[in-house]
Amino acid sequence: MVKALKEKAPVTGTGSQQPEVVVDPTREPIVVVDGLHIVYRVYSGGGGKGTAASALLRIVKRENRPQTKEVHAVRGVSFIAYRGDAIGVIGTNGSGKSTLLKAIAGLLPPARGGVYTDGQPSMLGVNAALMRDLSGSRNIVLGCLAMGLTQEETKAKYEEIVKFADLKKGFIDYPMSTYSSGMGARLRFAIAAARTHDVMLIDEALATGDAKFKKRSKEKIEELRKDAGAVFLVAHNLDVIEETCNRVIWLDEGRIKMDGDPKEVLRAYTEATGK
């Protein structure tokens, strides 16, 4: 799978060929992605238009039975992430960025290949644990407990989380259903960043928020890089990627197009996509 590291320049794939995976023997691997394929199986109706109720009726009557389709979202991806890395994952919509992060987090089973981690990956947000009908304050407690913090640790982290999220006055006691998307994203990031993660996976968390919050987020990620294993960041804002990450992986149609120094990879990506 791997060969000895010859140079630290970005590696580039051509056509369907993946970039060569290289090893830095001076660093400690924390995530190894080996020939990873992720395939979604989705269902589609047999054609025609109508309401959801009419579609269900056709299924019940065994008319136009749903067909199974496969979506090959990640295609033979291989790379090694090292302890202390902050890796930006870029690509156009549908390139497989979020799917890759979910696979590393263990939320999607590989069709082929595998993901190996030294430690527990954590997807940013503890979204499944947060409840829209509860206040931000109650969700802080719920989110921290869901991440494995004790009640004493949660109490000690509470004020830090509230300050970092920087919600409008009084909103910490309002239900999260009243929050804007930006407020919700800030609170989720603040909760997730309240503990040290072996591998932290952030999907678009920094896309929403003002310059002040993005600066705090960048500083927090730097802290996590020192204390944790590795950070993966998906964001459409390339400036955030360049400022935050020491390495960038460019995905194109589920394959690695380029992997290496942020400035060089981002320059090539911008030239190729015009973004």
From TrEMBL:
Keywords: ATP-binding, Nucleotide-binding, Transport. InterPro entries: AAA+_ATPase, ABC_transporter-like_ATP-bd, ABC_transpr_TagH-like, Bact_Polysacc_Export_ATP-bd, P-loop_NTPase. CDD domains: ABC_KpsT_Wzt. SUPFAM superfamilies: P-loop containing nucleoside triphosphate hydrolases. Transmembrane segments: none annotated. GO terms for cellular component: membrane. GO terms for molecular function: ABC-type transporter activity; ATP binding; ATP hydrolysis activity. Residues 1-20 are annotated as: Disordered. It comes from the Bacteria. Residues 57-272 form the ABC transporter domain. Belongs to the ABC transporter superfamily. This is Teichoic acid transport system ATP-binding protein. It comes from Actinomadura viridis. The lineage of its organism: Bacteria, Bacillati, Actinomycetota, Actinomycetes, Streptosporangiales.
